[in-house]
Write a structure and sequence with these properties.
Length: about 600
């Protein structure tokens, strides 16, 4: 049974509620509730944008009017420093305390029956996770889409590399409202507004600035988050106080987690799923529902096709958006807040790329065995026209290494992938074949497949390499090359040498020419390589502007300008003593 047989026909909307926080700051909210006597199970939705905007309130995940039809009250609140709420915007910092104060206030209202759920996407999902990390018993269910959990390694940085395109896009996107809240005269606001508008128009060039700390408009407008992030490249107390992943042992509320294979927050969702599965309390540990579609982040709100990712249209069964997420969320809350047997209570639903089919599994990853593909060449793997191979057999003897020169002033360009920087470039699946003609891109390809190869789970590359620089980056990208030559990007990863042993603690500088082992996380993937296709693994040292360019100096992020850039001579080893290997989770059965 789903839904509520006694669904109300009318909705009461109470505007401009004022909710006072423990420090006296007042946050603004709207309430949607059924007409007539309560109390009602209640959903909290704490948002960065305007609570009254149709895009925010009804398009992102859940239409509150549909929730009211199911018998819920829905409180939509603007977070501190945004829209109608008081104080200064400081992302992440106040969400746990403000969330808890809002939760306590809600429980005291006569229209709330004490059964609470929370939901959100992107930043509003972060506020929902912050609530869940409190471990409050009154919070009975959570639903999140496309968000972070460890904001150090999964939002701002990835394995030590600064998520440049996303961070620039985010900082400038939130700047418009910050300008309007400044205590300056209208002439000054108009001047700042004009510079802001020009920066948004020119954002590809803004993202390409060196040093990457060169953003005076952000500083002048008091938008200090970007600079703070550059000042804290290491995991320290700044990050720990907002780290939901570290508090997974407190998340007892059953969670519905929705993300896409090409979403820049995929890693965060998978990390959180694993953390709750390993150390979360019940009932959350056993009742974590994970849904992974073929999407990139902006798919969820595309006005044209929510089933197109980059250059590939996948059709109606792959569609996302509120028409898909809304019923999932309401069924989830019905199960955990009202006791109705509505929808699955856990498990994983995922889109198998290549086959383009939805699959179900009791847990993630589904059962698999490791398939090891070793890098081979005769020293000529540069470009897709070289002699690089991916083979099942490990190397024998002293095979010559492959070499290339990484120049930070001529980086390998980002093309699609797991990005969110829509004013800079798009995300998702794009043809990588032109990039694979660059001399600083090593390419290792498998033989043409004669039968399907299905994988599902985490992908890891163990890479043996040398560099002439004290610090540098190594990148990896896995592609599916179709018979016609279209090279579809599927998975990608990066490691900054100074964080090669841990994303949270620095390693010693590289010694020039010394063979060093790097583990590159290519995140998770479910894909079937079809007969007639090849696997192709790219190795290089940049993916720009998704990530900042490592200037090969070993200096702190944001310190180096163009004049500081140094070229690095890179060697990739794949001999018997240094076997570089891609490890894939191969599924059993006819396609595995």
């Amino acid at each position: 049974m789903t839904g509520n047989a006694l669904a109300p026909s009318s909705v009461i909307v109470e505007r401009d509620l004022s909710i006072e926080m423990r420090d006296g700051i007042v946050l603004a909210a709207d309430l949607y509730r059924p007409q007539g006597d309560g109390p009602h199970p209640t959903l909290l939705y704490r948002v960065r944008g305007s609570r009254s905007a149709a895009f925010i309130s009804g398009l992102l995940m859940l239409n509150p009017l549909e929730a009211v039809r199911r018998g819920y009250a829905v409180l939509i609140q603007e977070v501190r420093g945004r829209a109608g709420s008081q104080a200064r915007w400081h992302p992440f910092v106040h969400e746990r305390e403000d969330g808890e104060d809002t939760l306590s206030w809600t429980l005291a209202q006569e229209w709330c029956d004490g059964r609470l759920g929370t939901y959100g996407t992107a930043y509003s999902a972060q506020t929902a996770l912050a609530l869940a990390a409190l471990g409050r018993d009154e919070l009975r269910a959570v639903a999140v889409l496309g968000t972070g959990a460890d904001y150090h390694n999964g939002w701002v940085y990835t394995n030590g590399a600064f998520e440049l395109g996303w961070n620039v896009y985010w900082a400038y996107m939130t700047l418009g409202e910050s300008i309007e809240r400044l205590d300056v005269d209208e002439q000054r606001k108009a001047e700042l507004r004009g510079r802001y508008e020009q920066a948004m128009i020119e954002e590809p060039a803004v993202a390409a600035r060196l040093p990457i700390s060169d953003h005076p408009l952000l500083v002048e407008c008091g938008e200090l988050q970007y600079q703070e992030w550059l000042e804290h490249p290491d995991y320290d107390d700044y990050w720990r106080r907002i780290d939901v992943l570290a508090d997974a042992h407190r998340i007892a509320a059953p969670m519905l987690s929705i993300v896409g294979w090409h979403d820049n927050f995929l890693k965060s969702h998978m990390d959180l799923y694993r953390a709750i599965s390993e150390r979360g309390p019940e009932p959350g540990r056993s009742h974590h529902r994970l849904v992974i579609g073929p999407w990139e982040h902006a798919n969820y709100v595309s006005p044209f096709s929510t089933s197109r990712t980059g250059a590939v249209e996948l059709g109606p069964r792959a569609a996302c958006g509120v028409s898909r997420s809304g019923p999932m969320l309401l069924d989830w809350f019905d199960r955990w807040l009202t006791g109705l047997d509505a929808g699955p209570a856990g498990g994983v639903r995922y889109w198998q790329l290549g086959e383009n089919e939805w699959k179900e599994s009791a847990a993630w990853p589904p059962p698999s065995h490791e398939r090891a593909l070793y890098l081979h060449s005769s020293g000529g793997a540069a470009t897709r026209e070289g002699d690089g191979l991916l083979l099942d057999e490990p190397p024998v003897g002293a095979l010559p290494p492959d070499s290339y020169v990484y120049d930070p002033l001529d980086p390998v360009p980002t093309l699609g992938g797991k990005t969110l920087m829509p004013t800079i470039m798009g995300a998702g699946i794009e043809d990588q074949s032109e990039i694979q003609l660059r001399k600083d891109v090593l390419c290792y390809r498998s033989p043409v497949l004669t039968e399907p190869l299905a994988i599902a789970g985490p992908l890891r590359l163990r890479l043996w390499a040398c560099s002439s620089a004290p610090d540098t980056d190594f990148t990896a990208k896995l592609c599916d090359v179709a018979p016609g030559g279209f090279a579809a990007n599927l998975a990608e990863g990066i490691v900054r040498a100074r964080y090669r042993d841990s994303a949270r603690a620095r390693s010693a500088p590289l010694q020039p020419g010394e063979p060093t082992m790097f583990e590159i996380d290519l995140w998770d993937l479910a894909h079937t390589f079809l007969p007639g296709h090849r696997l192709l693994l790219e190795i290089s040292s940049s993916n720009f502007p998704r990530f900042d360019r490592n200037m090969n100096t070993g200096h702190e992020p944001g310190a180096d300008g163009a004049a500081d850039a140094r070229k690095a001579a890179q060697l990739v080893l794949h001999d018997q003593r240094h076997p570089s290997v891609l490890r894939l989770p191969e599924l059993p059965g006819p396609a595995g």
